[in-house]
Amino acid sequence: MEERDMLLAHMKDLADRAARAGCAASRFLTPAQAQSIAEYFKYKRVALSFEGGFDEAERTRAVFINSDWGEYNRAELLTVLKIVCRPQDSLPHRDVLGALMALGIERDVVGDILCENHAAALVCLPELGGYIAENLTKVGRVGVAVSEIKLHELPAKQENLTVKTDTVASLRLDTVLCAAFDLPRGKASELIAAGRVSISHQPCLQPSKEIGEGALLSVRGLGRAKLLEVGGMSKKGRLFVRIRLYGQ
């Protein structure tokens, strides 16, 4: 059985459990997994939502709820931990994740990790919060203190955002990549062929793939871009586009 089929079968089990017991939730999902679930979820009695602790969270839990049961408590699904170190030290995302893995923590029990200077916040399963708070004493060589905070105390996700306007000959993937990242056509094709490009979290190997408004383009090593708007046509027959760049 393919990985996606196994994932969807597990989600069906959770939905069936929610139909009987009221509510059931998955572990943390990647954006691609969440999208697959959203596309294939078709249950009349059970509603589906995704919870990651804040808007635009990348890693989320799929939450299935019986509409006759009522609402769920987000605090029972998510725990937020704040990690702090000395002001002269820093907590890079990679180091925080590595420290968690060193504790035997699996990636799917932890959601997004938000790092800024000498502090970080992470979302995790409630049953892991106490273990992490007690055992995470160092991130790399940096000593840290960990405490639980409320969901509303999560810091805003910091991203370097810019919006650019350009024109493209078409809405082919390679053409839009060139406009978004200022790439030569050949380089865009190389990145696609190498499997480094995804459209809305789904890998794509087709340079000629047509994309539309709202598509999120991810390029390993370059960052992400979102096609915000497709406008009218220029005098030279090119399409006006607005693209948001997120950086690495």
What would you note in describing this structure?
With 248 residues, the chain is an alpha+beta fold. The protein has three domains: 3-72, Ribosomal Protein S8, Chain: A, domain 1 (2-Layer Sandwich); 79-153, 2-Layer Sandwich (Alpha-Beta Plaits), CATH 3.30.70.330; 162-247, RNA-binding S4 domain (Structural Genomics Hypothetical 15.5 Kd Protein In mrcA-pckA Intergenic Region, Chain A), CATH 3.10.290.10. The protein is 27% helix and 34% strand. It has six helices and 15 strands. The protein has helices at residues 3-21, 31-40, 93-102, 126-135, 173-181, 185-193, and strands at residues 23-29, 46-51, 60-66, 79-84, 110-116, 119-124, 138-139, 142-143, 145-149, 162-168, 197-199, 202-203, 216-219, 223-233, 239-247. The protein has a six-stranded antiparallel sheet with strand order 10-15-14-13-11-12. Helix 1 (3-21) crosses helix 2 (31-40) and helix 5 crosses helix 6 (185-193). It is globular, with a radius of gyration of 21 Å. The model has no long low-confidence stretch (mean pLDDT 89).
